[in-house]
Amino acid sequence: MRKVSFAEFGGPDVLQLIDAEEPHAGPGQIRVAVRAAGVNPVDWRVREGQKLAAHPLALPSGVGLDAAGVVDEVGAGVEGVAVGDRVFGEGTSTYAEFAVLAHWARMPEGLTFEEAAGYPCVMETALRVIGEVGVAPGQTLLVSGASGGVGSAVLQVARDRGIAVIATAGAANQEYVRGLGARATTYGDGWVERVRRLGPVDAALDLAGSGVIRELVELTGDPNKVVSIADLGAPDLGVRFSGAAGSVPDALVTTVDLLTRGKLHIPVEKAYPLADAVAAHIDSQAGHTRGRRVIVI
């Protein structure tokens, strides 16, 4: 089978499309014929060798955590899913024609493989950081870097829970984040004052890693009310860096519930063929994404 792999840590150019042996489902796992794989920032952070405790690996390594596809192998002890079912979930080395998933859910009716592929990681992350930052219904959450996959998920989960959101995003994405229920403003000079004019802030999330931790602490008044998923230097300022995964099964249950109720939709900004994984990583690292990027097989 074809699979994207890397044999050393480094930039996007270390990614190679290789011929590899097919994986097989072990106990408690399923294998899918992958139709699409999510492209997430964690993918290129792992490829660069950043120390993310939740994703240890040995080289050479495959790439990717999220996938949507058709079940073609069911491991021992697995119930409630059969060969031929359309599922999405999280596993390992999902930039490939076949991948093994440890957590999965059936795809709701009307959802395409491309749409489904990007939900598991972004929804797990969004639910985790909302919980970690301790924001409650009726309070206001500031989201820095709100237009990407995780930001889009945070805004929609917050809206469903009755949490108000102030969002910072690029000029081209202002209407997009407003459409997800946020009060929006742009980055750049004077952004802190623009946020203050939009209202007081109870908690804040840094999703872009654009060097705004000090300002987020200033706006919330408490480093314990700020969480970052993108700035590895956040702990130096007393702010929690969230890199360890939460409950993927719970995230999938919540994702299916929100999708079924019409409360969640994250657009696919661009889909790349498997052979263009390098371009997908370059674009993902550049940021300014509206929604998600996926690999299609």
How do the strands and helices of this protein lay out in sequence?
Blueprint: E1 2-6, E2 16-19, E3 30-39, H1 41-48, E4 61-62, E5 66-74, E6 86-92, E7 98-106, H2 113-117, H3 119-133, E8 140-144, H4 149-161, E9 164-169, H5 174-179, E10 183-186, H6 191-198, E11 203-206, H7 213-220, E12 226-228, E13 240-241, H8 248-260, E14 268-273, H9 277-286, E15 292-296
Parallel strand pairs: 8-9, 8-11, 9-10, 11-12, 12-13, 14-15
Antiparallel strand pairs: 1-2, 1-4, 3-5, 3-7, 3-15, 5-6, 6-7
Describe the structure.
The chain is of the alpha/beta class and 297 residues long. The protein is built from 9 helices and 15 strands. The protein has helices spanning 41-48, 113-117, 119-133, 149-161, 174-179, 191-198, 213-220, 248-260, 277-286, and strands at residues 2-6, 16-19, 30-39, 61-62, 66-74, 86-92, 98-106, 140-144, 164-169, 183-186, 203-206, 226-228, 240-241, 268-273, 292-296. The strands form 3 sheets. Strands 3, 5, 6, 7, 14 and 15 form a 6-stranded mixed sheet that branches. Strands 10-9-8-11-12-13 form a 6-stranded parallel sheet, with helices on both faces. Helix 7 links the parallel strand 11 and strand 12. Helix 3 (119-133) crosses helix 4 and helix 3 (119-133) packs across helix 8 (248-260). The longest helix has 15 residues, at 119-133. The termini are close together. The mean pLDDT is 95.
